[in-house]
Design goal:
159 residues; alpha/beta; four-stranded parallel sheet; binds 4-nitrophenyl phosphate
């Protein structure tokens, strides 16, 4: 059986999408389904390419048991639209940027926004924590844990 391939995308791929990747990997592992999924993350902006996740984001994540191991890389339209089944944007500008890079209707069908799967929070985007303080990083994780469950349920229904 081929794996379900999911790509989480933010701006820099050093805060929100590496966290989404780690939270969702943990979620499917807890459900005993890790082998069914191929999960990755990317940024719409290549500035941080090759870097580990932001140290502050790593520190907040590890307190909840998430080890952020991914290395920042840009979104590669030709490769990533073909490879992934679900491409999940963290905020509205990521969503708009990805939509502009879609090559056809089939690509657009793969595009989602993370907060559409949230049930406990009313945010219409995962707020960028980069220039903010402590609470921003915790909020990212809170939203991702909530929306991750909703997204998992959505994916299972599609498959
Ligand atoms: P991310 O956060 O998109 O969640 O990885 C940011 C990382 C870097 C910058 C902005 C947001 N930056 O301006 O460099």
């Amino acid at each position: 059986m081929s794996k379900i391939k999911i790509l989480f995308v933010c701006l820099g791929n050093i805060c929100r999408s590496p966290s989404a990747e780690a939270v969702f990997k943990d979620l499917v592992k807890t459900k005993g389904l890790a082998e069914e999924f191929d999960i990755d993350s990317a940024g719409t902006y290549a500035y941080h390419e090759g870097e580990m996740a932001d140290r502050r984001m790593q520190q907040h994540a590890i307190k909840r048991g998430y080890n952020l191991t991914s290395i920042s890389r840009p979104f590669y339209p030709n490769r990533d639209w073909d490879k992934f089944d679900y491409i999940v944007a963290m905020d509205n500008s990521n969503f708009t940027d990805l939509r502009a890079m879609a090559r056809n209707e089939a690509d657009l069908k793969k595009l989602h926004k993370m907060t559409n799967f949230s049930s406990r929070f009313n945010y219409d985007h995962v707020p960028d924590p980069y220039y903010g303080g402590y609470e921003g990083f915790e909020l990212v994780l809170d939203i991702l844990e909530d929306a991750g469950e909703g997204f998992f349920n959505y994916v299972k229904k599609q498959e």
